[in-house]
Specification:
Chain lengths: 271, 417
Amino acid sequence: MTANAADVRDETVEVWDSRLRLHVKVAGDGPPLLYFHPLPGLAWQPFLDQLAQRHTVYAPEHPGTSPGEPQAIREVQTFTELLLVYEEMIRTLGLERPAAVGQSFGGMVAADLAATFPRLFSRLVLLSPIGLWRDDAPIPLMQMVAGPPEEVPSYLYAHPESEAAQAAQALPGDPEQIPKAIAQRTWNIGCTTKFAWPIADHGLGRRLHRIQVPAFIVWGREDALVPVMYAKEFGSRIAGSQVEVIDDCGHALQVDQPERTWTAISKFLAG
Amino acid sequence: MKVTLFEQVPYRYVPEGFEKRHNSVVTAPYQLVEPGRMTESLFSAYSELLHGARAGFDGICVTEHSQSSYDISPNPTLLAYAVACAAQAESLDVAITILGRSLGKTREPLKIAEEYALLDCISGGRLIAGFPVGLSYDANLNAALPAVETRERYREHRELILKAWSEPRPFPWNGRFEKYGQVNIWPRPIQQPHPPIWIPGTGSPGTLRDILHNDFSFVYLSWDGPKLTGREVFDRYWELAEELGRDRNPYRLGFVQVVAVSETDERAEKEYGRHLQAHYRAGPGAIPLTALAVPGYAEPAAVEGMLRSAGHGGMLTRLRTATYKELVDSQVAIVGSPATVADQIEAFVREFRIGNLLVMLQNGSMPRDLTEKSISLFAEEVLPRLRPIWDEDGWTNQWWPCARGVPVTEAAGGEKA
């Protein structure tokens, strides 16, 4: 069965002593898989449809990023609290050892959940995660987030002019909807960068050794946001992990190299 | 009304065309600075403020910005303290306003409580305490605090400072951002429970509501002059005041206006025109718009509103290439003879019920002698026309320092004159 956007349903999960109602997009069939989105919020992409072919995909929206509920971000004060919120969410949903896929900001979340709760997941996929820092390889997250919008694609894609990259950054066709869409995306980044500002280093490097599940780290060789040397940093800290570097590929892996990214991930998840 | 000399502290020698290559904040390259000229730029600001105090301005005012070429004032308390000491030495009765320390930016709010209290004490109770949130580039890029927390920090810090000033006994503070086992600052402000509080802002409804609710005074601090965006903001303010049951006391409202005065309109344009144009282009005009709204600084509804109104009214998006003529025609800068300047100011002050006028007479590359001439002419020929405005209405200005009537020598412990 091929899932498509029509099959995605919206579930709400009450957590955090009823102070938070998390919105979770759910699709597909099969063993559970969690997807943690990157800085600008959750966008349901073909990649998630692919995952939904073999899994029941649960994709939570970071607190504050669900339209109409911007103040939810106030209920999560620290990154540690964010991890506790997601751990509660997984128990509330009744998921038994789901697989976890985390991308960029979501990769940091997934990696730290796996390190903090070593028996929470069955498998872990990290797609060019943030969360570590080397002085000789600074991550220009602040420059990207606070810089001119027209420069954002050059941080994310190996080929910013490609059709796929343009489509991924596209605004609504109806001009009347554009201000709302920009405002939502901007706020989403405010909500995620709350836990990644100005440097996304919460000490994850000191905890990665606690990860006990099979882990797969995927990176684009031309990543202009989180340099590819971080693939090795994650790989060397997580015992038994596999690292795959994809050529001609930037930070947003599945936009630049959808097929190669999918092939690598599906093989790992099936293994 | 009360008229205050407002100064920022620009580096006066940014090269021509700076704005085409650089931003004036965050990344402004320091390599352009010659150390001796920095000394001169900083000292000129002090000298001009003191000149204004001597010339008869009711108050002087400075602001805080870090990592900027247009306002080198990482801690305005330092400059204000120097002026306050000089004013004491000369027995000048002048209010000292900081507009102000950025409470959404600071990591040490108690230091601000202490420093403001020091200023109030050394000036004999003449401090006006400004409590701005802080611009986004300053709070979220320079100080690198998460943008989405800026206003939460602001609210906690303001509450802590007000309590530190007025609570008679030591107290613990278990805040979200600050934790202290014992707060017991020395000194405390002479003005109790607190000095007058002015809140500068760009006029968002949330800020205005907060100001009126707490009975503070609002200062509309924009780069737009009274004509472009003034009516919208001022009308909103007085409507909200009515809604919240506040009176129409003009001293609830302040406004910052760029002004330059010479003997005639022609001379004013000749003397100040190029300095003003260069200032707007290389100073506020060279702040990238993205740096004024780092994601999370403004709520989604506010961002959507800004996007929908962009291009209507304000000059902000055009300052980088603005011409002198545009600046003057739009009243972003009011320039001319004393009569021209007084006429224009009096008209909008009366129309919008402004009780506290802050005039910015130094801009960018304008040299000290020229600035001091403008200050003198304003004080001698414009100020006397403005000061009586609102007198006949009998309003009490509770947002002005209470020690204004106390001779400085007495406050300083000397003999009465």
